[in-house]
Task: inverse folding
């Protein structure tokens, strides 16, 4: 049951963030070691913004699209510009 | 093997946390923004450890909790579910957790401890301190009401 909820949250977060970055190229959603969700994001929307403001942008976007049950499972947010994403995001296997 | 050596008493841990928060406010007043963020984050960590001690009925913080992972400490405190149910507080917690330490990438951590004086400005430091100590949305007042 818990695993199912986690899978659903992961899918919903992935779907919403794919919309956020205008396509799926710069989105990776992962489950962290505590069973919660984390994301690697690359977007122009983060350019010139400090780390806290970047998290607010993601948060405000998701709050309007996800149920709190799903959003409250998201704890790690790596919010980068496309260049930072290319440098730091894990490569697809 | 669980490290059960006592590090600090609950009472002293609370004093340390309050002192770090006061120092963070003093640093922001004097324009030392990276230091303010570092100490405010540390105060939040201390309060999470204190909450874990209270939940586990420990008089001291033990070596097993020599951990800086705020998400892990929140789980140990037993307050994870309650904190995640409060949207405003949880948003503050996520911001603290993802800024302190700054994680640029999984293999490229850039700890705020190693930040230079010019790496943060007043706006960032003020926003961070608000996440930690704002009476309505701050994680520390929320924890203080539970320990």
Result:
């Amino acid at each position: 049951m818990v695993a199912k909820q986690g899978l659903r949250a992961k899918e919903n977060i992935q779907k919403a963030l794919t919309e956020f970055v205008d396509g799926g190229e710069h989105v990776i959603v992962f489950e962290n070691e505590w069973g919660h969700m984390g994301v690697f994001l690359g977007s122009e929307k983060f350019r010139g913004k400090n780390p806290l403001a970047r998290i607010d942008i993601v948060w405000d976007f998701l709050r309007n699209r996800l149920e709190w049950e799903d959003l409250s499972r998201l704890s790690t947010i790596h919010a980068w510009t496309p260049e930072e994403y290319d440098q730091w995001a894990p490569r697809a296997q | 093997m669980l490290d059960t050596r006592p590090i600090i008493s609950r009472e002293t841990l609370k004093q340390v946390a309050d002192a770090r928060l006061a120092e963070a406010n003093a640093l922001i007043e004097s324009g030392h923004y990276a230091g303010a963020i570092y100490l405010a984050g540390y105060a939040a960590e201390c309060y999470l450890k204190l909450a874990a001690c209270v939940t586990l009925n420990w008089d001291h913080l033990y070596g097993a909790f020599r951990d800086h992972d705020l998400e892990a400490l929140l789980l140990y405190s037993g307050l994870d579910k309650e904190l995640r149910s409060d949207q405003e507080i949880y948003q503050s917690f996520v911001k603290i957790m993802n800024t302190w330490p700054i994680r640029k990438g999984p293999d490229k951590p850039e700890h705020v401890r190693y930040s230079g004086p010019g790496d943060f400005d007043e706006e960032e430091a003020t926003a961070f301190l608000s996440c930690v100590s704002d009476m309505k949305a701050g994680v520390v007042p929320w924890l203080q009401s539970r320990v």
Q: What stands out?
A: Chain A has one domain: 2-88. Strands of chain A lie at 27-31, 37-42, 74-80.
